[in-house]
From TrEMBL:
PROSITE patterns given in the database record: FN3, PROKAR_LIPOPROTEIN
UniProt domain Fibronectin type-III: residue ranges: 31-120
Record's keyword terms, sorted: Signal
Organism in which the protein naturally occurs: Microcosmobacter mediterraneus
Highest taxon listed in the record's lineage: Bacteria
Signal sequence interval, chain numbering: 1-19
Keyword Signal: yes
SUPFAM superfamilies: Fibronectin type III
InterPro entries: FN3_dom (IPR003961), FN3_sf (IPR036116), Ig-like_fold (IPR013783), PAPs_N (IPR015914)
Official protein name in the record: Fibronectin type III domain-containing protein
Parts of the chain that traverse the membrane: none
Length: 417
């Protein structure tokens, strides 16, 4: 019996020894290394990795960041690379890769790697809902521009019944603005210029929220500009295309604590054309390089745009003139008043503007004092800016109330003539 047990043990040792030898003859399948992502878009990514096994069978598992392995999406590949498509924009994903050397010999999973898809590209079309254009990221009412856009301000802005304005320019991917002169830059086709109008509920406490009224758009389509307006809903969740214009009652508390009420007028598309046309062609008004060329928060805004490659063809903002800031006392009274005239009035009172044949005034900043005819028309100017009478007051459209601070500036200037 002891001999029998001995032979059984000996036989078992032989089997175990043979098994060990067989395992030693099969190379271990090594997991992929050096995982990399490239050509990331809003809905796709190219993955690649290094294989130390000289094989052609891999499995990729991916899912939303933090997903539990085994619950993700798996795809097999016969190459050490794979193009993932159909992804969600502006989303972070995790992924793992495994090598299969043969049916019974697979590697461990690789280390986890992550990537984030880009934001959805802007749709340069006048779709029904503003949200469909991908101009904003996240909650629409936060007014966070798409990553493909940059915000800007004007040295002297247009007055619009004390409304606040949020401005940005969205450029097609891979393009920039081009430098031509101190006026408007060269805009590539499919550029979108957006301006959103809103009122803070209480200027003394911004945490009380705001009322967004409208978002005006200019889109350059096949070399020509087109305009449209989007009216925001009461829930502040979206805005709807509106070519006809409307009136929105507004109430807000100003910085002095006074309650203000007005009927805000959203312009019709015809109204937009009245101001945004030169020689019967639609054109932007605000973002001229000279109106962008000023110091904001300690930094020259135009130079920042140049440095960040939003504008090419120019290396220094010093090569561009600067429209004076109308509230800056370091400029002369005449410079401030002329800058105010330029941004408020010159789009109509200029050669080729809406009022070219109706008035001799030429109110662009570049016109000389004599050519401007301000002196000849000073009494008419004084009368039209000091009273609000529809069809008579200036500006002709776009306001329903007097800009007290602006009138004070212009009156002070006219009194010196």
């Amino acid at each position: 019996m002891k001999k029998f047990n001995f032979f059984i043990c000996l036989f078992a040792l032989v089997l175990i020894s043979c098994g060990d030898d067989d395992d030693a003859m099969v190379p271990q399948c090594v997991n992929p290394i050096n995982l990399e992502e490239s050509n990331i878009t809003f809905d796709s990514v190219a993955l690649s990795w290094d294989d130390l096994n000289n094989t052609n069978s891999f499995t990729v598992e991916y899912g939303l960041s933090g997903f539990e392995q085994g619950s993700g999406t798996t795809i097999n590949s016969t190459e050490n690379s794979l193009l993932l498509t159909g992804l969600t924009a502006n989303t972070t994903y995790d992924y793992y890769v495994q090598t299969s050397c043969d049916v019974s010999n697979v590697s461990l999973w690789s280390e986890v790697k992550s990537f984030t898809t880009l934001a959805s590209p802007v749709i340069p079309q006048f779709l029904t809902n503003l949200s469909d254009l991908n101009l904003f990221s996240g909650n629409l009412a936060d007014l966070t521009p798409t990553p493909y856009a940059f915000e800007y301000e004007l040295s002297t802005p247009l007055f619009s019944d004390y409304a606040h304005k949020h401005r940005f320019i969205a450029l097609p991917i891979g393009t920039t603005l081009g430098y031509e002169d101190d006026g408007l830059p060269i805009f590539p086709d499919n550029t979108v210029i957006a301006k959103t109008f809103f009122y803070n509920n209480d200027e003394r406490n911004l945490s009380l929220g705001r009322k967004i009224i409208e978002t005006r758009l200019l889109i350059k389509i096949e070399g020509s500009w087109e305009t449209a307006d989007y009216k925001w809903n009461d829930a502040q969740t979206d805005a709807v295309l509106d070519f006809d214009g409307s009136v929105v009652p507004i109430t807000w508390i100003d910085a002095e604590g006074d309650i203000n009420n007005l009927n805000y007028e959203i312009p019709s598309n015809t109204d937009c054309f009245t101001c945004h046309q030169t020689f019967n062609e639609i054109t932007p008004i605000g973002p001229r390089l000279r109106t962008l060329n000023f110091v904001k928060n300690g930094v020259n805004q135009l130079q920042q745009f140049i440095d960040e490659n939003y504008i090419t063809g120019i290396s220094s903002s010093d090569n561009v003139s600067a429209l004076p800031v109308w509230t800056d006392d370091s400029y002369t009274l005449e410079q401030r008043a002329r800058a105010y005239f330029d941004i408020q009035c010159a789009h109509c009172h200029i050669k080729g503007g809406f009022c070219e044949t109706q008035s001799p005034l030429r109110l662009d900043f570049e016109s000389s004092f004599d050519d401007s005819k301000i002196f000849d028309q000073r009494f008419s100017i004084q009368s039209r800016i000091s009273n609000f009478i529809p069809g008579f007051s200036m500006p002709f459209i776009g306001t329903t109330t007097i800009h007290d601070e602006g009138v004070e500036l212009l009156q002070a200037y006219l009194d010196t003539l």
